[in-house]
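Fold this sequence, please.
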Amino acid sequence: MLRSLALSAFVFLGSCQTMPTQGLAHDVYFELVDASPTARQRLVDSCYDKLAPIPGIRFFAAGDRDEGLSRPVNDQAFHVGLHVYFVDRAAHDAYQDDPRHLSFIEDNRGNWKSVRVFDAVFSR
């Protein structure tokens, strides 16, 4: 119950966030061996539990692929997407070595069929 309330508060507060105008976008797409709804939710929960609290994050979101979006341009070769916007490259680099990130990898990689990472610097 407490976890549900905390997640609801995060979603509500997150909807009030403005998108950052500069920093580094780190987008990760996971294709899973076991892609059941339970396994997908387990990975999403792990993203929020282990990764979201890491310092230097401006925006954070993780979720299941929307299977209803199936236009020819939609890449459907993933099950869970992770989107992390960092304040700068230094925050990204610190995140990569953070023990919570390393623990996240260790706890979840056994169910990863493939992982694709897209990093982009943005400034507007």
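The first helix runs from residue 2 to 15. The longest strand covers residues 112-123.
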